[in-house]
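Comment thread on ticket #2218

A.B. wrote:
> Attaching the input chain for the structure job we discussed in standup.
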Amino acid sequence: MRLPRLSALLCGQFGAFSRPPPGVVSRSQTATAPPRRRRRESFAAKSSEVTRTHSSNRDSRVMPSNVEIKARVSDPARFGEKAAELSQSEGTIIRQHDTFFNCSQGRLKLRDFMNESGQLIFYERPDTDGPKLSRYSISPTNDPTSLKTVLSDALGVKGQVRKERRLFLIGQTRVHLDTVEGLGDYMELEVVMRPEQTVEEGQKVAEELMEKLGVSKESLVTGAYMDLILKGHKET
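C.D. wrote:
> Ran it. Output below, let me know if you need it in another format.
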């Protein structure tokens, strides 16, 4: 296979990975990623319904989606207490090493859980603060090291993000308390959209939970951790 075609395939131009991510083991429970969702709505003017067509059988597929919020956290201990109270759990500790690859469309990253398992993730979302729609495709791997070598040779590495994540499940929302190497402490909310929900309803869920967790609008950030690292941002 020629490298340009491989690059296009991996960056979502000829199809999308669609298998759901594996679960992770919790300190107090097992956290299993929710099943793949389908959505019907569009996200304002910045995000519209995207249908992927498989190159071999021409089956139409719709990428699952989340409504997301990311913000800085000044007091991670206090945030953790509130999240634990709302989720009625101590959360799940996950260590992640993300490698981002050069990609002409969206973002492509390999997530290594540092236990011989990982996920190849392609996603698209607007770089705005506040709630935003993220469309994604995930393929699990049990050999992230070899896959990283292949993708690095084919596409080139854009950068890497290392973090320790504490995951809480609150209703249909995944709440992440992240300590990111080189950046500091952040939180992410991922509202997993249900088929019958509109994007506005997902935004409302995210905003209400943000208020319960004491996250101010002033602390909201745009882009991915990789973007912040490339821009040289660092929390003091």
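A.B. wrote:
> Thanks. Noting for the ticket: Residues 67 and 133 are 5 Å apart (CA to CA).
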